[in-house]
TrEMBL record:
Protein name according to UniProt: cytochrome-c oxidase
EC id: 7.1.1.9
Keyword GTP-binding: no
Subcellular location as annotated: Membrane
Gene3D superfamilies named among the record's database cross-references: 1.10.287.90, Cupredoxins - blue copper proteins, Cytochrome c-like domain
Membrane topology: Multi-pass membrane protein
Length: 354
């Protein structure tokens, strides 16, 4: 259906999502064209038939035009609306659910450039190299103001927000170089905030990746930051400070003050680092200092990647080093359960309540 619209009326289509969006656009165009044709046809017909001086019957309405008829066409219109709503919503929701095997890329926007880094450690400015046919999960944030990450050929647009993380994903279907734009006015050089996404064959991408300078991945950088910024002084198994363990924390549901719960994901970890007193874990005092202004967005992404990807490593370290007498869990929790929901990064230096 997406091919019914002439190519010169739309951008090039180069992703799985683009084909779906084009189908919706084409469907809406056809439905709208049909409605416009019907309305114009009726207007012209009635204008001619009931023109001044015509012998058309201007008496009572025919029996066809009844309350049942009005209910029928109103119900049909509602059905079409609900169908379009379901169709568009299902595709929009799918834009937030990346496949589990998707390649992860962190994107930091700033005036006026795009900085990207893949989990393998490859870093780029205003460019993003990806293999064709592979799903790519984007985790976006902004270092200053609101930006909007837009790839017209992929029909992909997602805001990059300061102090928050947003996500989206795409799967390119053809190789080539595609425009990357910012579509949220962000200052003087907004119009120059341009980049490109370069889609390559898998073997070409592998060669390009191997030719990049040797760099640590996000998790490795996060591991060094974890020690350099003093996180390990409170969260390591051997720490004298009774702080929550981070072992096995990813994806766990944790209890918060106020009879609330939260799932540990990128957004939760980021908030715990920047606003630790907002979501306080049950059983711990809100004494962790905020790291807002002390860590860059890239450093926060590295720490999150370390906690997420290094969770198995943390499990192993703590299972080997934690003495039976040590208890860094919340009251009532056993230190033998490293995946306890109470072990969260809400406060690196928390003290259990008496």
């Amino acid at each position: 259906m997406g091919n019914l619209i002439p190519a010169f009326l739309k951008p090039e289509s180069a992703s799985v999502q683009a084909a779906k969006v084009d189908m919706i656009f084409t469907g809406l165009t056809l439905i709208s064209a049909g409605i416009v044709a019907l309305v114009i046809g009726l207007v012209v017909t009635f204008a001619i038939r009931f023109r001044r001086g015509s012998r058309a019957n201007r008496g009572e309405l025919p029996s066809l035009v009844s309350s049942e008829f009005e209910i029928g066409w109103t119900a049909a219109t509602l059905f079409v609306f609900l169908f379009i709503f379901w169709w568009a919503t299902s595709i929009e929701i799918g834009a937030y659910s990346a496949p589990k095997d998707a390649m992860e890329v962190h994107v930091v926007a700033k005036q006026w450039m795009w900085k990207t880094q893949s989990a393998s450690g490859a870093r780029e400015i205003n460019e993003l190299h990806v293999p064709v046919g592979a799903p790519v999960r984007l985790i976006l944030t902004s270092q200053d103001v609101i930006h909007s990450f837009y790839i017209p050929a992929f029909r992909l647009k997602r805001d990059a927000l300061p102090y928050q993380q947003t996500e989206t994903w795409f799967q390119a279907t053809k190789t080539g170089s595609f425009h990357l734009l910012c579509t949220e006015f962000c200052g003087t050089d907004h119009s120059r905030m341009l980049g490109r996404v370069i889609v390559m064959e898998p073997q070409d991408y592998a060669r390009w990746l191997s030719a990049q300078p040797e760099r640590d991945g996000l998790a490795e950088l996060g591991e060094r930051l974890f020690t350099a910024r003093g996180c390990s002084g409170c969260h390591d198994a051997g720490s004298k400070v009774h702080a929550p363990s981070l072992a096995g924390i990813w994806g766990q549901a944790v209890p918060l003050e106020g009879n609330r719960t939260a799932t540990v994901d990128e957004a939760y970890l980021r908030d715990s680092i920047l606003q630790p007193k907002r979501d306080v874990v049950v059983g711990y005092e809100p004494i962790m200092p905020s790291y807002e202004g002390l860590l860059t967005d890239g450093e926060i992404q590295s720490l999150v990647a370390y906690i997420r990807l290094g969770t198995d490593k943390l499990d192993l370290i703590q299972s080997l080093s934690l003495e039976p007498s040590q208890n860094i869990c919340a009251p009532g929790q056993s230190s033998a359960s490293p995946r306890s929901p109470a072990m969260v990064p809400g406060a690196p230096a928390q003290t259990p309540r008496p």
